[in-house]
Amino acid sequence: MKKILSYTLVIILLIMVSCKKDHFIKDKNYRNKIEKDFNQKIENLGNSIFTIKKGDISLKEMEALKFLYAYMPLGDIVNHTNEFYLKNIKSSFKTQKELNWKISDELFRHFVLPIRVNNENLDSSRIVFAKELIPRVKGKSMYDAILEVNHWCHEKVIYKPTDGRTSSPLASVKTAYGRCGEESTFAVSAFRAIGIPARQVYTPRWAHTDDNHAWVEVWTDGKWHFLGACQPEPLLNLAWFNAPVSRGMLMDTKVFGHYCGKEEKLLENSNYTVINVTPNYAPVAKLNVVAKDNNDRNIEGARVDFKIYNYAEFYSIATKYTNKNGLAYLTAGLGDILVWSSYDGKYGYKKVTVGKDTLVNIVLDKSEGENSIISLDETPPVEHANVPKITSKQRLNNDKKKSIEDSIRNSYVATFMTKTKANNFLEKLKIVDNIDLSTNITNLLIESKGNHKIICDFLYKNTEELNRAIKLLNLLTKKDLRDVTMDVLDDNMSAKNSCLNPRVENERLFPYKKFFITKIKHSVLKEYNEAPSKLVNWCKNNISIDKNSYNLIPMSPMGVWNLRKADIRSINIFFVTLARTAGIESRKDIITGKIQYKNKKGVWIDVNFNKPSDKIALQGKLVMSYKPTKYLNNPKYYYNFTISKIENGIPDLLNYDLGNGNDEKGACYNHFKKGVNIDVGNYLLVTGTRLANGKVLSNLIFFSIKAGKTTNVDLLMREATNLIQVIGSFDSESKFYSIDDKTDMSFLQKAGRGYFVVGILGNQEPTNHALKDIANCSGELERWGRKIILLFPSKEEMKKYKPEYKLPLNVVFGIDKDSFIQKQIANNMKLKNKNLLPIFIFTDTFNRIVFISQGYTIGLGEKIMKVVNGI
Prior knowledge:
The chain is α+β, with helices and mostly antiparallel strands. Among the domains are: 419-583 and 595-607, no CATH class; 619-714; 728-870, Glutaredoxin (3-Layer(aba) Sandwich). Helix content is 37%, strand content 23%. Strands 30-37-36-33-34-35-31-32 form an eight-stranded mixed β-sheet. A six-stranded antiparallel β-sheet has the order 5-4-3-6-8-7. Strands 11-10-13-14-16 form a five-stranded antiparallel β-sheet, with no helix packed on it. A hairpin with a 2-residue loop joins strand 10 (303-310) and strand 11 (313-321). The longest helix is centred in the middle third of the chain and has 22 residues, at 392-413.
């Protein structure tokens, strides 16, 4: 009897252990929370979104699937099937078992299992990447595997600026390049594909220069480390941005679901948690803010925006809300910040210095309609770069690997469309003699990169309506050409109306027109066409707005139709797509972001699904006046000034970047001096002059626009005194190898007497930025006429160089043998990081340096021109 009882107890214990192992979520309390959040979502959205039953899959897979569905955005729920997520879960569990990295359940749950990284289109990259990467890392330590994966990423994708829509990982492979947000999304996807915890880290904006950046953190050896995505180095915590990131005011990362780590929470909503990782990179301090009313009473629930100057606006790097004591806080880098608090239409603001100011009271005593001018000086944090040391052997081995990876990637890129291949295709279309048409098609095919077969097949099967097919392709962005699918092209091509454009904003494209035509009677569509307000009312009466969903990932138009529920961004896109299907001209206004349709009189009507009726916006005229200075003749939008509309106490930026995709054309003062019509309301004009050390001299100019009236505003740019001064020395008799002359020459020989620019180039993202910025000022630099001498570190680096930008004609190239010139500049200027490239100096043959730029900076061409105009 005792034996039987013993066996029974053993069996019970084994069953209990087995049951425990079957759980994906080991923590019972957290498991109960997920179950509760999942059930609430099902109750809110309906059983149709989750059709997998308990007996269909294992307990572990079911819990993992419920975890994803409990916190994924509406767009991911309706845009993909249960089976899609289940396949990814199975791949993750299989890889976890095969590679067996030693990581916690929490790390796996939040930083491995989730498929989404940013706002990219989801795809099957996890499954594809795992098959290719597992054999490559098997047997390696986790640290070495991370380095190897980043080399693989470099083999597939390199840096190149693109538009703001984030390509899916597989689309990035197809294109072979991407901006930093795409590189980091791609790399995080690769690390997660093989079970390594990874997250995308993001600085919303730099404080010392105009731009932002994204990179990757990976978990190994018990802590988080960082790396430059697709930019492999011999060690972790080493990247081109070691110096810039030490001057960062805020770095954060978005974590899927409710995350309970030790980091400061910047935001927590029903989908994700945003955490503050700034202490990983820079010296920080805590800033406490108390919002008060006119009677010195603390305000609970006040919005607090922490803003820094960047791209000529005060950009919110973090937004928090005050607690019952009126308090909100932020841990940030040690620099200047503009704190802007708002509540119930009232607002107040104050410039503070983090580290010096620990507690600041903001009195919300301003209301919309304020007319004033405020001048502020903003100083960014000082540099505290921490750069790991590497040996020359490590650098050499790393560079050799990168060269091999370059050749592999370049072999793939060689399969893209060329002019010769395009001519062969044009002969197939029998339109070689039509020069304009041939040139247009050739440009489209070359721009389509690895997607050229789709574009070719689309054109070839529509030869009878070639002009319409080309018109459709010309409406797409450059990035669309690189990843658009045939079903989207066919859908818009075959739609029986003139509204060809499939894009509303930067959403994923879907084939929606055929879908709507099959769902809505022709007579109803015709009725909407005759009276678009009826379509607006139908949307308001039939589509409920889910205010708990966040607008990161828009739902497909078909998903909105089927679910009859949407977040505000998705219903806006849905309306435009449905209106276009009915032949109604509709858009998201590029400047204001408002949803509009054009009525029969040709007038744009505003649509707002949060308000009961639609209207024609009342407008007035804004006329700007500006007195040119010797440094700046025609201020540019986003570079020198911006305009925001203040609504409910919160500034909302107007988008006057009138270019498209990678087009550098944008608005400037000339656009405003004759007057522009803008909506009635209260506005904030920000102007800024950024100095070489990163400091900014800014103006905040408040003004109002009244219906039918003209408002005159002075565009006031502050000037720096003593902008140009001698800051170091450089030996103009120093020699470099001149590529044009095929011999060693001194700078004096090559440049002649006077001023010239020397640039030491790297092979990383900052160099691309610098060359692009110089190209943007080609005309002005050519008129200046002095030499711009750009030096490669070696012949090998020179061979890799492929000109992507049309540089000024006064640019000449050379080689800095044994880094002699680089070392001289670094020593003379006492540079903290002697190996950080690129380095640019503005010097003369009297051996005076009046300007230096090192590493990552934006607007280099304009900064050089400021020096030109100031000497």
